[in-house]
Amino acid sequence: MKKKIIRVKKLAKIYRESENYALDHIDLSINQGSIFGLLGPNGAGKSTFINILAGLVNKSSGKVNVCGFDLDSDPKTIRGNLGIVPQEIIIDPFFTPMEIMNIQAGMYAVEKVNIKNNEILNLLGLGDKANAYARSLSGGMKRRLMVAKAMVHNPPILILDEPTAGVDVELRTKLWESIKNLNKNGTTIILTTHYLKEAELLCDDIAVINRGKVIANDSKSNLLKILDEKEIKIEFTKKINKIPNKIKPYIINKSSYEITLKFNKSKINTAELIKHFVNNKLELKDITTKDSDLEDIFIKLLKN
Question: What is d(CA 72, CA 58) in angstroms, rounded to the nearest whole number?
Answer without folding.
Answer: 10
